[in-house]
Amino acid sequence: MEFITGIEEKEVLELSDLFKEGMPGKRVKVNGAVHAIRDMGTVAFVILRKRDGLVQCVYEEGATNFNLKDLKEAATVEVTGTLAESEKAPEGIEIRLEEITVLSEPAEPLPLPIAKWKLNTSLEAKLNYRPISLRNVRERAKFRIQEGIVRGFRDFLYGEGFTEIHTPKIGAKSAEGGANLFKLEYFHRPAILQQSPQFYKQMMVGVFDRVFETAPVFRAEKHNTKRHLNEYTSLDFEMGYIEGFEDIMAMETGFLQYAMKLLETEYAKELKILNIVLPKTDKIPAVRFDEIKRLVAEKYNRKIKNPFDLEPEEEILISRYAKEEWDADFVFVTHYPSKKRPFYAMDDPADPTFTLSFDLLFKGMEITTGGQRIHDYNALLEKMASRGMTEEGMEQYLSAFKYGMPPHGGLGIGMERLTMKLMDEDNVREATLFPRDLSRLEP
Amino acid sequence: MEFITGIEEKEVLELSDLFKEGMPGKRVKVNGAVHAIRDMGTVAFVILRKRDGLVQCVYEEGATNFNLKDLKEAATVEVTGTLAESEKAPEGIEIRLEEITVLSEPAEPLPLPIAKWKLNTSLEAKLNYRPISLRNVRERAKFRIQEGIVRGFRDFLYGEGFTEIHTPKIGAKSAEGGANLFKLEYFHRPAILQQSPQFYKQMMVGVFDRVFETAPVFRAEKHNTKRHLNEYTSLDFEMGYIEGFEDIMAMETGFLQYAMKLLETEYAKELKILNIVLPKTDKIPAVRFDEIKRLVAEKYNRKIKNPFDLEPEEEILISRYAKEEWDADFVFVTHYPSKKRPFYAMDDPADPTFTLSFDLLFKGMEITTGGQRIHDYNALLEKMASRGMTEEGMEQYLSAFKYGMPPHGGLGIGMERLTMKLMDEDNVREATLFPRDLSRLEP
Predict the structure, then answer these.
(1) Are B299 and B307 in contact (CB under 8 A)?
(2) In Å, how far are A6, B196, B410 from B415, measured between CA atoms?
(3) From the candidates A29, A34, A51, A55, which should be mutated to test the interface with B, based on the most B CB atoms within 10 A?
């Protein structure tokens, strides 16, 4: 028996340690993956990849206990050497190698030139070699940015009194949805994968007032576009005691402000690697659905084809309008037509053909759908009846309302879409570690 | 068009505002759910339930613009009144009601006495009325504790340089696992739900060195016990450049220390409600599988039936032993037999019939399985061949090793089990918002 007492300081240093004052001149031990070897003849540069960046090591024949020919790219090593300041080194410091110990070796040379600054490979190839292509410094930085977004979402909401929940992804078939649900067998009973935590988070508003979840959702949609995934991570929240659906937009704006600040302070390195200019979030325009449709039609000389929905092209024009007229990258489009919203959306008392709901567009793409929900039991039953829905399979959901629910609303944010647009990528798969689409079930 | 500028201060106060200095005597506006009405004749107590606790309101006939008879339990209201200090009020303050505005009303009286301190209802009834039973203050506190655990996991690991990842839950069928996988149809192709993010987090060690994920996993096991769920939340991490599997146990110990501290500081209210005494985590004993089996057999006069596995009864005795001999609630059991561990577990070079792996037991139950993994491509292929496994469907996983992987290991923690044991509950469903088991597919 021995006691484990927690983490201890290691002799092996992290990248951040190397940049501390007084370090140059010291003998240091560092580990990492051999990202690239640049052999210049009598001297060679061995670039180590660590989790927080690259570090240049200098190999001089005779000075090291190791023959450079025995070192392979993609090996992992532990090196010892003297830290030196160097104007020529990319980060201003380098390690003059004395010892190299190989921790592991690859069995074959890398199939992709991951040490290049930009991985000039097709998206298809990047996805086929996902565990390898992500070793490229720019590729992996995208998912550090994604981490920052999700972290910001949670931290902001914790601070606003939200409780984090974990709701089941396997469920019984219900009267809602249908065609877009993945079906599975659950111990000889038909079951589905949840397309959203909607019902669960609403039920939990009756318990915690304010809840959020960051979890996968599943949509069996046969879309094959640059903006659709069949499994994605949804950032969901739902809040009670709202005075109007503007409270929800205000909360989302607060999140975006918080997240951009977090990226600026904690993910500056990755923002620089990816050349990201963060969008302004101090004020986000909110404009009615019918109004912005008209404004866009007028300004860009366009006919309104479908008064009840936005076409992708219209979303792009709305964002263009918001940029040109209000200098805004984000724009809330409010009061969507009732017939295009789910049964639980609250209709606008002033005109029940519209709802107290909104989408948030970011650089031409919808990244959020949200709004106020019906909280009165009888109103909910009436709305369902008016749509010809039965209560089958929804008894538990409805019971939350039967036994009292506060006025409430919420939203869902597509994590991959938000990341994608922040990086100005044009395919959502660029912002997905392992995308699931019509053709892609692995890796 | 209007601009949304973020969250603004509201006139309606939160519970924490009421406890600020100088507040007694002030006129306050508060909202909440009517948790209980206690009518004493000329005076009545209206207990409001808010997300962070209860607040007592005093209704006096004539002083309020409202007839008490029109107020229903489970209604949600906004009240105005004068805040007063009161020795008799549970929290030392109360609101003397002047105005009540009903925000929403229930359609029927509550089916459970949720205002009781302890909800003396069967687990079955609690689960059948989940959205209602969780409104009980003790029931919901359990899931605030659960939030603290998950939050602690993430915050600790962010600080240790881990990157959060989101990996797909739908996957292709592979040579590993089989019987315990839920199957589904994915656009006319056979697919499964992942029983663990194991392969993905290992692949990502080659990218980020250290990764974690907090997400659902799915197990089609036909267990019907107090400790099994068919869907649960797994807290997973995987770390590269380890010097031995002790590094993983040290990291888990560090997490537990961090999480207990977080609960102590940020969730003191819930700890008190649930009467939780936090376990000691300053040092956790680690003892070999064969050694502890022998020690337990000796001390408790028990025959070793199966030398390769632990029976549930043995887990209980090991924890009893650890408590009696080392005053420990947690105990690491190390060096599990190789034949009981998955193919990717690293065998102990000193004796390859055992592995460099461990379980963490907490008060008699396994809450973690972890260990060092094989990182060498050829060693991995050999191990698979020795088990008669094919490489089919594992090409991507194996490619990560083919192109170089550092020594690494990791673990998975069952969120619900850890929560359950922390609260001294005896059924994992008590620590699950919406459990999925052999018979339960809703709510």
Answers:
(1) no
(2) 20, 13, 16
(3) A51
The kind and range of the H/E element at B43 are strand B43-50
A164 neighbors B215 (Cβ within 8 angstroms): no
Q: Determine whether the interchain pair A130/B203 forms a contact, defined as Cβ–Cβ distance below 8 Å.
A: yes
Fill in the amino acid letter for B214: T
Q: Which residues of B touch A7 (CB under 8 A)?
A: 160, 250-251, 253-254
CA B297/CA A434 separation, integer angstroms: 48
Angle between helices B312-326 and B289-299 (to 10 degrees): 80
How many angstroms separate the CA atoms of A375 and A393, rounded? 19
Q: Mean pLDDT in each 10-residue stretch from start to end of chain A (443 residues)?
A: 95 95 96 96 94 96 90 97 93 95 97 93 95 97 98 98 98 74 94 96 98 97 94 98 98 98 98 97 98 96 90 94 98 96 97 97 97 98 94 91 98 98 97 97 91
The position carrying tokens 């929290």 is B91
Tell me the whole-structure pTM to 2 decimals.
0.97
Burial category of B186 from C-beta neighbours within 10 Å (exposed 0-12, middle 13-18, buried 19 and up) = buried
Per-residue burial over A8-24, b = 16 or more CB atoms within 10 Å of its CB, e = otherwise: eeeebbebeebeeeeeb
Distance CA A233, CA A217 (A): 6
Alpha carbon A219 to chain centroid distance? Answer: 17
Question: Using an 8 Å Cβ cutoff, are A253 and B6 in contact?
Answer: yes
Q: Output the pLDDT for position B178.
A: 66
Nearest Cβ partner for A4 among B33, B250, B436:
B250
Task: Provide, as residue numbers in chain B, all residues whose Cβ is less than 8 Å from the Cβ of A332.
Answer: 4
Distance CA B350, CA B38 (A): 70
pLDDT tier, B438 (very low <50, low <70, confident <90, very high otherwise):
very high
CA distance A378 to chain B (A): 8
What is the C-alpha radius of gyration for chain B, rounded to an integer number of angstroms?
26
**Residue whose tokens read 């003849």:** A41
Phi and psi torsions of B95, nearest 5°: -110, 125
Tokens 């209206």 — which residue? B46
Q: Is the Cβ–Cβ distance between B104 and A376 less than 8 Å?
A: yes
Q: Residue A260 and residue A278: Cα distance in Å, rounded?
A: 7
How would DSSP label each residue in A219-286?
------SSS--SEEEEEEEEEES-SSTHHHHHHHHHHHHHHHHHHHHHSHHHHHHHTPPPPP-S-EEE
pLDDT of residue A178: 66
- Distance (Å) from the alpha carbon of A338 to chain B's nearest alpha carbon: 20
For A161, the closest chain B residue by CA position comes to: B51
